[in-house]
Amino acid sequence: MTGRQGLVLTLAFGAVSLVSVWAVAVPDVVRIPHRDLATPMPNARFSHRGHAQYQCYSCHPSVFPQMRESFTHVQMDEGRYCARCHNGGAAPAVKSYACEVCHAR
């Protein structure tokens, strides 16, 4: 094997490894913890797969930290978190969805 072939194999193995690590490190569905524990709604669900057309850096870390953080609908009414995009312009507004769409069991 030549040095060039070894380099190509190393790069290919590295790319496959990175894709594998990403697939394991990025959960398909994330449960967003409740801020208001008195509310009987289940934690909201976020689907990475449903937003797969965007790159990670579209939301991380500017809109969401890369850890689970609770937030409120009041904060979303201020245009933060989900409502950064789900504002009726870039995507349907948060308020246009039935509660169960995000707060599914």
Quick overview of this protein structure:
The protein contains three helices and two strands, in the order H-E-E-H-H. With 105 residues, it is an alpha+beta fold. Strands 1-2 form a two-stranded antiparallel ribbon.
Structure explained in plain terms:
It is a single chain. By secondary structure, this protein is α+β, with helices and mostly antiparallel strands. Helix content is 30%, strand content 8%. The protein has three helices and two strands. The protein has a two-stranded antiparallel ribbon with strand order 1-2. The longest helix is centred in the first third of the chain and has 23 residues. The protein is elongated. About 7% of the residues have low confidence.
Distinctive features:
two-stranded antiparallel ribbon; alpha+beta; 2 strands; 105 residues
Parts with pLDDT < 50 across at least 5 consecutive residues:
16-22
Query: What is the typical, i.e. mean, pLDDT?
Result: 83
Distance between the termini: 54 Å
Principal-axis shape: elongated
Trace the largest sheet across and list its strands.
Answer: 1-2
Present the secondary structure layout.
Blueprint lengths: L2 H23 L3 E4 L11 E4 L25 H5 L21 H4 L3
Antiparallel strand pairs: 1-2
